[in-house]
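User: Fold this, then the next.

Assistant: Folding the first:
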Amino acid sequence: MRCPKCQDTNSKVVDSRHADEMNAIRRRRECENCGTRFTTFERIELSPLVVIKKDGTREVFDRSKVLDGFLKACEKRSIPYEVIEKRADNVEATLRNLNKPEISSNDIGESVMNELITLDQVAYVRFASVYREFKDIDQLMDILQNLEKGKADNEV
């Protein structure tokens, strides 16, 4: 592990604890060269998921892209980073629970939208407008009306 400050590779573990519902280990480390403390995470390496993109190309699933999508949608919203990270974990778990070696990018987008709609409606609309590639204001109004209708259905 390289120190983020001096790039030295010698560090000692100061503290270890389970994280992410026992799926990862969080380690506090201290650089033996400069004394800087930093945190690392170890995760279980799972079999790779292959994503089939809209253009038919394939690439390995990258959780960081899902997390980036959440962060962009939730930008300037008062949502703690830990909550966003948990939702990204939920998306990955949902996709892995499909028990398919290949998933479509559509599966990922729908899973993200399912998480966002219960997290923050503004973030949901932001993500949906990009994911669904809205061409005009009417498409945006449709999604807003559906949100209002769902809210009204839940109040009855």
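Now the next one, as you asked:
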Amino acid sequence: MSSEPMVRAVMFEALFLHGVRATEALEEAMRAEGVDLRALKPEYPWVTYNRCVDLTWKHLFPDLSAEQGRRELGRAFVRGFTRTLLGGAVVAGQPVLGPARYLKRFPDHLRLDSSRLRVTPIQVGERAFRMEFRNEIPVTPDFMVGVLEEGLRLTRTEANFTVERHSPMSFDLHIAW
């Protein structure tokens, strides 16, 4: 069994099949990374997912910075995830959950995958949280901002985010609404 961090195909399905519309050129670039969107394997290395995210923002949002592109793809991931069988079940109750309960439960959503993402939600005010990401894998905070931003929109909440980076694998997201 490999100790390399892996990500399940549902993550690829959510973003690349349901969240964005892949161009022929993007599909070709992803095949060069070992990902055939028409025949997904059960799982891929996490590093492959990150490379495909970066390929996607470069192909679909070439006028955006890396940070803006990754954030947009985080939002697209959530929109796509809601269109998967698993995602539909997960987000069905989001509108009534409210932002605080959503953020407190966010680590449970990450357990749906075997990616080793670790986050601790800490409520720091009535309408403010700090999400502490301490990972064994490189995760871009901008992608996670997009994920949380879109997740909060499902609770009918618009939030402001500030990123505090500690290392390539460690960062905090400060969220207020």
